[in-house]
Amino acid sequence: MNKEYKSGFVAIIGRPNVGKSTLMNQIIGQKIAIMSDKPQTTRNKIRAVYTSEEGQIIFLDTPGVHKPKSRLGDLMNKMVEDALREVDLILFLIDASEKLGAGDEFIIEKLREVKTPVYLVINKIDKVHPEDLLPIIEQYRQLYPFAEIIPVSALQGNNVNRLMEQLLKELPEGPQFYPPDQVTDHPERFIVAELIREKVLHLTREEIPHSIAVVIEQMKTREGNENLVDIYATIYTERQTQKGILVGKQGAMMKEIGKRARQDIERLLGTKVYLNLWIKVKKDWRNQENLFKNFGFHDEE
Q1: What is the pLDDT of residue 246?
Q2: Residue range 43-58: average pLDDT?
Q3: What residue ranges define each of the domains in the chain, with the CATH number in brackets?
Q4: Can you name the residues that pair with 277 across neighbouring β-strands?
Q5: Alpha carbon 7 to chain centroid distance?
Q6: Using an 8 Å Cβ cutoff, are 275 and 258 in contact?
Q7: Exposed, middle or buried by CB within 10 Å (0-12, 13-18, 19+), for 83?
Q8: What is the CB neighbour count within 10 angstroms for residue 30?
Q9: What gap in Å lies between CA 101 and CA 90, rounded to an integer?
Q10: 170-197: pLDDT as tens digits
Q11: pLDDT, tens digit, for every residue of 269-282?
């Protein structure tokens, strides 16, 4: 390890659906944060670890900032505010194909309250003409003194290397916090639950996404077969009608969720998986704070 090894913590912040999880997965090179075209996909601060010969960066992928409509929403916004205070650098991600909105202005107001350097990362540049970037840069420059402005395409990987070089240049000298082969500090159970939740988001209608939580009841290697992991998971939702949608006609939706989730989980674990899914109704759980911890939501580390 050279004497000028860099390390530090970087928060990724932005409106829902600007590509925060996509960027993190592109940087780390494997799927640790779930992706969906529906807002509020990320609910926890997902820590991802990038390690190179030059340094180590620990990323916090914060929930998309939004006007909260439930106690869970309040908790998610509190996570964002906490993240901004505990990092060395902030990446404010915007979507090049979306106009500046109230959500972006709300985030900029939050950024004024912290002294941490902020990079403006303009994502989804593959969706706009290069000439359209200059007016966007100018508009945001007038609103906040960004340390750097870097356009990228998180999905295609365009300019992501330049972003990483700049981050390593900016971060202080420091130790390697995690082993070089570790990509997240979340336990496998958490990531498995997130992969199941991602499949529900992809496959169900608008009324389902925000009202589900996934709990891994049991996850262990099958006795007598080291190449098979048994996973028992419960999908909680708020209404009986939602349960019906998740089950689907003759259990078809449930089977499809299970099939797609199992494929991703097998890639993650590198082994065969038996996945058993149950659905339970827990009325209005998003407003019951006593359930948050059971369902994997924490407002402190």
Answers
A1: 84
A2: 77
A3: 6-170 (3.40.50.300), 188-292 (3.30.300.20)
A4: 233
A5: 21
A6: yes
A7: buried
A8: 10
A9: 20
A10: 999 988 887 777 776 556 777 788 888 8
A11: 778 899 999 888 87
Q: What are the pLDDT digits (tens) for 211-263? A: 678 888 887 888 888 788 898 988 888 878 888 888 888 889 899 999 999 98
Half-sphere exposure of 227 (CA within 13 A, CB side): 0
Residue 227: CB partners within 8 Å, gap ≥ 6?
271, 272
Which residues have C-beta within 8 Å of that of residue 126, sequence separation ≥ 6? 153, 155, 156, 158
**What is the Cα Rg of the chain in Å?**
20
Task: For residue 138, name the pLDDT band (cuts at 50, 70, 90).
Answer: very high
Helices (H), the chain: 20-28, 71-85, 102-111, 133-141, 160-170, 188-203, 240-247, 252-269, 289-292
* 188-203 helix and 252-269 helix, angle to the nearest 10 degrees: 140
**46-51 and 228-237 strand pairing:** unpaired
**What's the mean pLDDT when you consider all of the chain?**
79
Cβ neighbours around 301 below 10 Å, total: 10
Check if the beta carbon of residue 39 is closer than 8 Å to that of residue 203.
Answer: no
Query: Using an 8 Å Cβ cutoff, are 194 and 57 in contact?
Result: no
Count the Cβ atoms, other than its own, within 10 Å of residue 28. 18
CA 94, 184, 246, 242 dihedral sign is negative
Whole-angstrom distance, CA of residue 72 vs CA of residue 23? 25
